[in-house]
């Protein structure tokens, strides 16, 4: 199919450097097991297994459908570039959340206690009372005297649209 989808798939090329495009084309060609210029859902499943990220059939189908713009059941190189850009954005968000989490994890133990949160808030010029900190911990889905893990933190960031 042409039209809008072809234009979208060509525009995405502008978001990559020439060297990146060459490397991505090499990767695409490696993943395209039958060398037909397209990646099937089976080939995508094999890719995910190879990079040690096996996915359920449902999640794989969701991922596939998100980038199969022309809905022809195959991912061409333009759609592959879109998938890679989405992955790049996902990694950047994950890195930003990790950086933010580490800022609040003042003891560097991979968890944020109420005391950590209070200290970190003071450091950034946003002092909070014990009651306010406790409210934040509850908002994060953490019971009293517990701590916020990175998983909790990611969910909170998503829920509050921080990242």
UniProtKB/TrEMBL annotation:
**Pfam families, per the entry:** EF-hand_7
Coiled coil feature spans? none
Question: What keywords tag this UniProt record?
Answer: Calcium, Repeat
Q: Which GO terms describe its cellular component?
A: mitotic spindle
State the Gene Ontology terms under molecular function: calcium ion binding
InterPro entries per UniProt: Centrin_CML-like, EF-hand-dom_pair, EF_Hand_1_Ca_BS, EF_hand_dom
Annotated ranges, domain EF-hand? 19-54, 55-90, 92-127
Matching entries from Gene3D superfamilies are given as: EF-hand
What's the protein here called?
EF-hand domain-containing protein
């Amino acid at each position: 199919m042409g039209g809008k989808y072809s234009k979208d798939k060509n525009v995405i090329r502008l978001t990559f450097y020439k060297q990146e495009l060459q490397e991505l084309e090499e990767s695409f060609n490696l993943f395209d097991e039958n060398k037909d210029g397209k990646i099937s859902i089976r080939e995508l499943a094999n890719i995910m297994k190879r990079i040690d990220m096996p996915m359920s059939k449902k999640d794989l189908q969701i991922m596939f459908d998100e980038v199969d713009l022309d809905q022809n059941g195959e991912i061409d190189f333009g759609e592959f570039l879109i998938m890679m850009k989405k992955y790049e954005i996902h990694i950047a968000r994950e890195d930003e959340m990790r950086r933010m989490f580490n800022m609040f994890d003042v003891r560097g133990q991979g968890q944020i206690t109420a005391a950590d949160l209070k200290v970190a808030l003071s450091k950034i010029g946003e002092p909070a009372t014990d009651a306010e900190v406790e409210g934040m911990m509850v908002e994060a889905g953490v019971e009293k005297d517990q701590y916020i893990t990175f998983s909790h933190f990611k969910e909170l960031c998503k829920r509050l649209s921080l990242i």
